[in-house]
Fold this protein.
Amino acid sequence: MQVKGRLDLRFEPLKQAFAELFNNPQERGAALCVQIGGQSVLDLWAGFADKDRRQDWAEDTLVNLFSCSKTFTAVCALQLVAEGKLDLDRPVAHYWPEFAAAGKEHISLRQILCHRAGLPALRELLPPEALYDWHTMTSRVAAEAPWWIPGSAQGYAAITYGWLVGELIRRVDGRSPGQSIGARIARPLGLDFYLGTPAHEFSRIAHVARAKGNLGDAAAQRLLKCMMTQPQALSTRAFANPPSIMTSTNKPEWRRMEQPAANGHGNARTLASFFSALLDDRLLPAELLAEMTREHSQGEDLTLLTETRFALGCLLDQPMLPNATYGASSKAFGHPGAGGSIGFADPEYELGFGFVCNTLGPYILMDPRTQQLVRVLMDCLHS
């Protein structure tokens, strides 16, 4: 497989590790970008963007970043905190009165951002088309009762996070979440990133599909078993209600919509640049970045059925857990996306890292492909 791009020769072993991903015949396309101190030291892409392996992955190919989108959304909300338009600890119902229903009158933005609000899923099964109706979904979230006493436990809000944080952004900023993130983050940084991708950009978007024959690690198998055998379980509802969540990724209506938890579209360069910008105070004041990246929640995740460790809108390293470590320093923070894409920063190395792919792996937190790339990157940095 021909690898295209550019790199500092110090990182030649990382280029080789990236190329070796394509020894797996199921791997179709991917891109990798590493920045140190805000400067790109490696920017690579290879493979195919389409389903039938006819369209080469290009320098400007976009792909669904899935939950990597969550950190963009969190930063947008925290910018509003910095401006005094939102408060991390004031009840959400202050800004969104309908949200006070069903025992949620004291839930805060902080609890939502660190997945302790008790709202990872909707109990009542919704029709597939509800996914694309912002008012329907935010109304249902506002009416939902918490699955546990808010603040007493943690459970990853895989999709509901987007309606929860996105509606707060909409109410206080006067713009949709996609418009706000575009104006506050993407355009000022020159990022190739869309939350609500215009139709004229669809030709650049890679087709994503799951790898076959790989059941993943124990955590992935545990979650899959729950979803296959317990249709009303919290975990199942979180990922499959509305049911179109699991089947919409390549559809035009998914690309057009604004779902700030899961449907941002960008590339590896987008992710590396975004996380580099967080490290040099271009997006948040230093004290708010420190608040964003400190541990807020750690333990058994009631949605993912594995250990998670959250800050505000990002996942923190768990070095003792093979499925939950970035492989960089203990200060790393960022967010993986379903199937293997990931963006993260490591202040210790002034590192911004982005990896994206369109062959989706089955892992719950860190994908082994990314972890191997980071191991090689660390070797390069220490050599």
The longest helix spans residues 368-382.
